Automatic annotation (TrEMBL):
GO terms for cellular component: cytosol; nucleus. Residues 78-275 form the A-kinase anchor protein 7-like phosphoesterase domain. Residues 309-341 are annotated as: Disordered. Residues 282-338 form the A-kinase anchor protein 7 RI-RII subunit-binding domain. This is A-kinase anchoring protein 7. GO terms for biological process: regulation of protein kinase A signaling. Residues 327-341 have a biased composition (Basic and acidic residues). Signal peptide: none annotated. Binds cAMP-dependent protein kinase (PKA). Interacts with PRKCA; only the cytoplasmic form is capable of interacting with PRKCA. Coiled coil: none annotated. One of its GO terms (molecular function) is protein kinase A regulatory subunit binding.
């Protein structure tokens, strides 16, 4: 039911879009970006790919949050240290008087006191995880001896103690008086640190070296915090603020364990020692005698073990064991013949 005029109009409408599309495509081909893949150039990706990357990103964020919640493991836990033992009886007596004065004012603090046999100056802390590393530490300590003797040039290093200080009101210590001796001691500590680290030993602290003689630590009695004792009250040691405790001469440096059982005199377990110069009178003290005795016993045991191993190896060598048995049999045979005669 369509007349001829309508058909002609429809055919014209179809021709116009087709002609327009063809001319448009010819125009676009002549443009400079005609050969560019717009999808790749603009970073347009498929929807599934976008969702996959988003899910991966969310998973990474979740893992990072879990890692942040976990407490960081402390790989470096010092368990050994270089110690300068305090042996001057005058200093020990003064510290005990200080401790008694504090305890009289607050008896609960008795458990925070350091035993008199444990008084020392810490020169360096380190981590030694096994016997091999302990032996390396001993070697490093022995290497320090000539350096210290060269530094002192035959003179004594005198360490005078005067006054009281604290670390954050948690650790109480007797101060080392100011003077050139502090520089010498600091130089020894720096050399010790370098020597141990060069041998692959993890040593040292983040804070700078501050020589001190500890006499009390609140950490020795954690229950005190629950009872309201959260810091050391300066009034407890007020009378000793400027007290002169005496002088210690650097005579010995020990490699000590923080964890092994202490000696009977209260001093730390000692792996090895070096002696600097000569002590007054040249007489060794108890700690040195104990260390010397230990080394003598260890050397004797080592020699016995080596001798036993050598004898065992000789017996197991082919031919030797049989010859020994043959000689023994010949001797037994001769003895029997002689007995018969």
């Amino acid at each position: 039911g369509i007349n001829s005029n309508e058909c002609e109009n429809i055919s014209r409408e179809k021709k116009i879009p087709e002609e327009f599309e063809a001319s448009t495509m010819d125009f676009l081909v002549d443009m400079p970006f005609a050969t560019v893949d717009i999808q790749d150039d603009c970073g347009i990706t498929d929807e599934p790919q976008i969702n996959l990357e988003r899910s991966k990103e969310k998973e990474r964020i979740k893992i990072d949050r879990v890692k942040k919640r976990k407490p960081k493991r402390k790989d470096y836990q010092p368990n050994y240290f270089l110690s300068i033992p305090i042996t001057n009886k005058e200093i020990i007596k003064g510290i005990k008087s200080l401790q008694n004065a504090v305890i009289q004012q607050d008896k609960r603090l008795a458990q925070t006191m350091v035993r008199d046999g444990s008084f020392h100056i810490t020169l360096l802390v380190m981590q030694l995880l096994n016997e091999d590393e302990v032996n390396i530490g001993i070697d490093a300590l022995l290497e320090l001896k000539p350096f210290i003797e060269e530094l002192l040039q035959g003179k004594h290093l005198t360490l005078p103690f005067q006054g009281i200080g604290t670390f954050g009101n948690q650790v109480g210590f007797v101060k080392l008086a100011e003077g050139n001796h502090v520089n010498s001691l600091s130089e020894i500590a720096e050399t010790a640190n370098r020597t141990f680290q060069e041998k692959g030993i993890r040593a040292g602290e983040s804070r700078s070296f501050k020589p001190h003689l500890t006499f009390m630590k609140l950490s020795k009695a954690p229950w005190l915090r629950k009872n309201g004792v959260k810091k050391i009250d300066p009034d407890l040691y007020e009378k000793f603020i400027s007290h002169r405790f005496g002088e210690e001469i650097l005579y010995r440096i020990d490699l000590c364990s923080m964890e092994k059982k202490k000696q009977s005199n209260g001093y730390y377990h000692c792996e090895s020692s070096i002696v600097i110069g000569e002590k007054n009178g040249g007489e060794p003290d108890d700690a040195e005698l104990v260390s010397l005795s230990k080394r003598l016993v260890e050397n004797a045991v080592l020699k016995a073990v080596q001798q036993y191993l050598e004898e065992t190896q000789n017996k197991n060598k082919p031919g030797e064991g049989s010859s020994v048995k043959t000689e023994a049999a010949d001797r037994n045979g001769n003895d029997n013949e002689n007995n018969r005669k």
